[in-house]
Amino acid sequence: MRKRIYWLLPDLDAARKTMNELLLARVSDRHIHFVAEDGSDMTGLHAANILQTSDLVEAAQTGLLVGAGLGAAGGVVAAYVLTGTGAAPQAVVIALAGLGAVLGTWSSSMIGSSTPSRRLKRFEKQIAEGQYLLMVDVPRTRVTDIEELLERTHPEAHFEGLEPNVPAFP
Q1: Which residues make beta-bridge pairs with 6?
Q2: Nearest Cα to 35, choosing from 145, 124, 149, 105?
Q3: What tens digit of pLDDT does each residue of 9-20 get?
Q4: Number of domains making up the chain
Q5: How far apart are CA 121 and CA 135, in angstroms?
Q6: Co-location of 62 and 38 in the same domain
Q7: What is the pLDDT of residues 17-64, one digit of tens each?
Q8: Whole domain around residue 86: which residue ranges?
Q9: CA 142 to chain centre
């Protein structure tokens, strides 16, 4: 399991230097994400994608659970109605639960992909002012090492917290 560390960097130059130092510290570039104001220069940085900047993953998970639950409930009702027609009630419940899960995941992920991440909401002001947000995902055993590296090499940067659990998917 990984933890996500947040740092605010004042400008592009500091962000580039930080990116290079993290790469030299053997942090893979797929675990380093930068967020900046729309239209900002991101040359030399690994920009965060929709998985890091939106609520897509959380929305899809919620849609999966709600859709499966509603589909299963509809399946129970359908099985009750179809009793005596020869249809297997368990198959109807399972089929409608699966269909509900698929439709719930799809529709919720469409909404979630267009919703800004609630985790990044607290950084909106600083990003709008031109700062760069660094999100670096590191194994639990390396959190202290990476924090010390960034504190030592970038006194102008601000540590902004630690997210306890980063999903493996994004």
Answers
A1: 135, 161
A2: 124
A3: 998 988 999 999
A4: 2
A5: 14
A6: no
A7: 999 999 998 988 888 999 988 888 888 888 888 888 777 888 889 999
A8: 56-113
A9: 20
